[in-house]
Amino acid sequence: MYKNRSISERLKRMAEHFPALVLSGARQTGKSTLIAHIFPEHETVVFDPVKDIGNARQDPDLFLDNHPPPLVLDEIQYAPELVAALKRRIDATGRKPGSYILTGSQQWSVLKSVSESLAGRAVFADIEGFSLSEIAEQVPDVSWLGRWLSDPEAFVSQAALCRDPTRSLNEQLWRGWLPEADRLPLDLLPDFHASYFRTYIERDVRLLADVEDWQLFGRFVQLVAAMSACEINYSQLGRDVGITPQTARRWLGLLRATFQWYEVPAYSGNPVKRISGKPKGYFSDSGLACHLQQISSPVALGGHPQTGRLFEAAVMAEIRKMCTLESVAPALYHWRTHGGAEVDILLERDNCFYPLEVKLGTRPSRKDTRGFAAFRNTYPSLRMAPGLVVVPGFAGENHSLLKISDQDYALCWRVD
Q: Pick from 153, 94, 220, 45: which is nearest to 384 by CA?
């Protein structure tokens, strides 16, 4: 059953004003299903890494003659020869809006070529797995993040609800956020994630790079999954697997290129030095991360030492999904001092900073805001919104927002 996606209306608006729309994201995040649902009048051609569909690679101009717009070109990374022909075709037809919809599951090579060749002709959007509101089929007009960014004072003066699916936190983290995983019974999820990872290695990564030892690469991905929501130390990564720091960087680049991993830079008060600190890395899907760490069930996740990191990664992913709905997305950082003070997630927009701390517990208190206080003391001249401590739920409370200090609040991210 199709579930409405929060980004649907934004994609429609983009297609109304640009001749080409490029939608990218990881394998099985629902790109093709979404496009088919909101652009049903478009013909769709799905490309293959082996077979030259419609001779698109051999004769791209003839292919486009045989497939006039409106046209969906699915998995465009498998037909790179089409990009230059698309540019010529768009210019020759007066740049008619909504002519071409392109999808891709790799950030490198073809999508880079698309962004360069179709500059001014194409608009780009990313899609990740389901959000909480999409799973619950209660997509709001404006997300709680959008309301917080637009008017922090008004946001904290009224209840701010994060929509809930009807399953436990541990089940949701173990299940993950991919549309296919959302509908499967629990006993089949290990098979799904095993197949997903095998297909990812054999179809996506092998086409991007020549890895000498695929078994070692698989061990590396398992280690990276265990380090989600941690600062990245390339030397340590290499030592733990037995590869050089340079290889660790290159392999992390492969994960980024296929949307399985992303990084958030460190913040410092000097713009020149904002990238000098260690970035924080996140595995994109908590369900696949659980599978790679051999966590066998939601019950086993309950007492696992990785649960807190998986929860933080899920909150960060939720924020990223909501950021894609903003006309101007905020910059994302994390902040940490050598003394140990930290803010898990720091957003910046319109010269205002929005700090979030993620805690796996049901009794948020003032001590959870110590990172906010340290940040304010370090940068007293910065404009800061009230801080939010994001927790799974409140013990004995029916509200979704609690004041826990003079300036800061706890936000319930309840999934029970």
A: 153
Neighbours of 318 (CB within 10 A): 21
CA distance 23 to 35: 9
Q: What is the pLDDT of residue 164?
A: 56
The domain spans of the chain are 8-126, 133-412
Q: Tens digit of pLDDT for each residue in 131-148?
A: 999 998 988 888 899 999
Among candidates 46, 191, 17, 189, which has minimal Cα distance to 104?
A: 46
Residue with tokens 């206080």: 373
pLDDT digits (tens, 9 = 90+) for 289-331: 999 999 999 999 988 999 999 999 999 999 999 999 998 999 9
Question: What number of other Cβ atoms are within 10 A of residue 63's Cβ?
Answer: 21
Closest by CA to 236, choosing from 249, 217, 253, is: 249
Distance CA 73, CA 342 (A): 44
Do 60 and 117 form a contact (C-beta atoms < 8 A)?
no
Query: Quick check: 276 pLDDT over 50?
Result: no
Alpha helices in 227-349 (DSSP H): 234-241, 245-257, 286-292, 298-302, 307-323
299's CB contacts (< 8 A; 6+ apart) are: 170
CATH, domain 8-126, list 3.40.1190.20, 3.40.50.300, 3.30.300.330, 3.40.50.720: 3.40.50.300
Residue 277: band (very low, low, confident or very high) from pLDDT cuts 50, 70, 90: confident
d(CA 184, CA 196): 14
- Name the nearest CA neighbour of 353 among 380, 385, 386, 317: 385
| Predicted pLDDT of residue 23 | 94
The amino acid present at 225, given as its one-letter code, is A
Measure the CA–CA gap between 257 and 353, rounded to whole angstroms.
Answer: 29
Give the tokens for residue 165: 């699916």
Q: What are phi and psi of 356, to 5 degrees?
A: -130, 140
- What H or E segment, with its residue span, contains residue 62? helix 60-66
3-class SS at 394?
coil
391 sits in which H/E element: strand 388-391
- Per-residue tokens: 142: 């404006």
Q: Confirm if 224 and 263 have CB atoms less than 8 A apart.
A: no
Do the Cβ atoms of 114 and 76 come closer than 8 Å? yes
Both tokens assigned to 151: 């008017």
pLDDT at 110: 56
